[in-house]
Design brief:
globular; about 5% helix; mainly beta
Length: about 150
């Protein structure tokens, strides 16, 4: 750990089962083309801020959100191919530019309806992971929004 290293804990944004991003059934995520991280198979249709930060991207269809915190980008993508729903079953509670605290409700979605049509495994990735000193992942298990799923060393 260098003198200026910073450790940032990423909490789980969704209650559910934690898996590695390499297990996601979408190559853009599983090959880490979009970033490294974890994924959650949601138990409920609520997404919370995993850190104190700022909303930098809110996709129009409300199925994905990008956050920035201490120079780290975090992308939360609800389900696979859910962009095709065009926002149906998704409700955003924040907008671009909003400052959020860890635990702030970001998005709600109708898990049962989305699940009927799409895989709801939801990646939480760090697009700029190549700039980090380390990205330490938590073991696979069931998590709640109080649990740390990744620790980043910057």
């Amino acid at each position: 750990m260098g003198l200026f290293s910073k450790k940032i804990e990423i909490k789980s944004p969704i209650k559910g089962k934690l898996v590695d991003v390499t297990e996601v059934k979408d190559e853009a995520f599983s090959t880490k083309a979009l970033g490294d991280g974890m994924a959650i198979i949601p138990e409920e249709g609520k997404v919370y801020a995993p850190v104190d930060g700022e909303v930098i991207t809110m996709i129009d269809s409300n199925h994905a959100i990008g956050l920035s915190a201490k120079g780290i980008e975090i992308l939360i993508h609800i389900g696979m191919d859910t962009v095709k729903l065009g926002g149906k079953y998704f409700k955003a509670h924040v907008k671009e530019g909003d400052k959020v605290k860890a635990g702030t409700l970001l998005i709600e979605f109708d898990k049962e309806e989305v699940e009927k049509e799409y895989d709801i495994t939801s990646p939480i990735i760090i697009p700029n992971f190549s700039e980090l000193k380390a990205l330490n992942k938590t073991e696979h298990r069931n998590v709640t929004i109080d649990d740390t799923i990744m620790t980043i060393v910057k």
